[in-house]
Amino acid sequence: MPALRRMVAETRLHPADLILPAFVREGVAEPVPIGAMPGVVQHTRDTLRKAAVEAVSAGISGIMLFGVPEDAKKDALGTAGTDPDGILQQALRDVRSEVGDELVVMSDLCLDEYTDHGHCGVLDAEGRVDNDATLERYAEMAQVQADAGAHVVGPSGMMDGQIGVIRDALDTIGREDVAVLAYTAKYTSAFYGPFREAVGSSLRGDRKTYQQDPANARESLRELALDLAEGADMVMVKPAGPYLDILAKVAESADVPVAAYQISGEYAMIEAAAEKGWIDRDAAIMESLTGIRRAGARMILTYWATEVAQRLNRG
Ligand code: PBG
Q: Helix, strand or coil for residue 95?
């Protein structure tokens, strides 16, 4: 009997569990569909504002913004990422002016959208990602994003020491109020494929030197200890579906809120199978999210956030 099952369910999804990742593209007059993510677009500044308002009405808790600069603005250092008038900074101001504090406004803190080589950091003379030089860029980025109105910054580049450097940079400008959501366990993943289209990534090669190896679990607990010691306010596991064991371990040991990111490839798989009539789309979406909550995520970043919240509100 449905009422009985509902009464005894151990895991519930609530709109407030959900955070919407959203892309905003510079210099476009209309939203641009993302081929591998049917239903997801690169927003114009204007449609992003509308998506934020819709997210508030649906009752989700947050939005995570990713900026997509004009190609001509990409360079080796990713300077558009620290330009106060860069696309992400403009979008942060837009969204804050639209929704104020009704939504937690988060910003992706990473260079890959802005570098012409597509890596998450700057490169050394041999073309390798230079961890410490990248930290200096992240510090500046955190300050610029805080100035633009981010409530939370989300460092997704997996550089060693990034959380401490970002925390210090924010405190130095008196922004102790801006929280840091650390991408603590971020695995190198084939499931990021559609995202690379979503942000028009220039990456050739891979991120295996700075993202975690899918074969390893214990490393995540070490990353967790480091991020907490450096001052992370919240931690995240990413991707979500293929890493539920990691999520469960992290959730068990962390004494801060734990998020999971249901990423582009997880989205694309369900949408593609549903389009072919091979799967019940809505049921698969709800099951995938319930599994992520059950494994221990307090918050879930999902491209279905607004849609699912609307469905939950209908009961
Ligand atoms: C890197 C970043 C990635 C995603 C979010 N931030 C891609 C990567 O590491 O290559 C992926 C998100 C998704 O696939 O939905 N800044």
A: helix
Question: Rounded to 5 degrees, what angle do the CA atoms 100, 13, 182 make?
Answer: 60
Q: Which residues of the chain have pLDDT under 50?
A: none
> 206: which 2 tokens?
């891979």
Domains, the chain, ranges and CATH?
9-314 (3.20.20.70)
Per-residue confidence (pLDDT) for residue 205, from 0 to 100:
85
Q: Indicate if ligand 1 lies below 6 Å from the C-beta of 92.
A: no
Q: What is the pLDDT of residues 120-140, one digit of tens each?
A: 999 999 999 999 999 999 999
Find residue 261's DSSP bridge partners: 301
- Give the separation between CA 115 and CA 201, rounded to whole angstroms: 9
User: Does the annotation mark 74 as catalytic?
Assistant: no
Respond yes or no: is residue 238 known to be catalytic.
yes
Residue 52 in tokens: 């934020």
**Which of 140, 61, 70 minimizes the C-alpha distance to 105?**
61
Is pTM beyond 0.85? Reply is yes
CA–CA gap between residue 23 and residue 54 (Å, rounded)? 15
pLDDT of residue 185: 95
Q: Ligand 1, atom 2: nearest CA belongs to which residue?
A: 156
Q: Encode 59-90: b = buried (16+ Cβ within 10 Å), e = exposed.
A: bbbbbbbbbbbeeebbeebbbbbbbeebbbbb
The protein residue with its alpha carbon nearest to ligand 1, atom 6, reads 156
Per-residue pLDDT, 197:
85
Question: In whole angstroms, what is the distance from residue 163 CA to residue 232 CA?
Answer: 6
pLDDT at 181: 98
Out of 50, 208, 238, 249, the active site residue is: 238
Long-range contacts of range 120-127, CB-CB < 8 Å, 24 or more positions apart?
A: 120/156, 120/157, 120/158, 120/159, 120/207, 120/210, 121/157, 121/159, 121/210, 122/76, 122/77, 122/78, 123/76
Omega cis (within 30) before 69: no
pLDDT for residue 204: 82
Gap between the Cα atoms of 60 and 83, Å rounded: 29
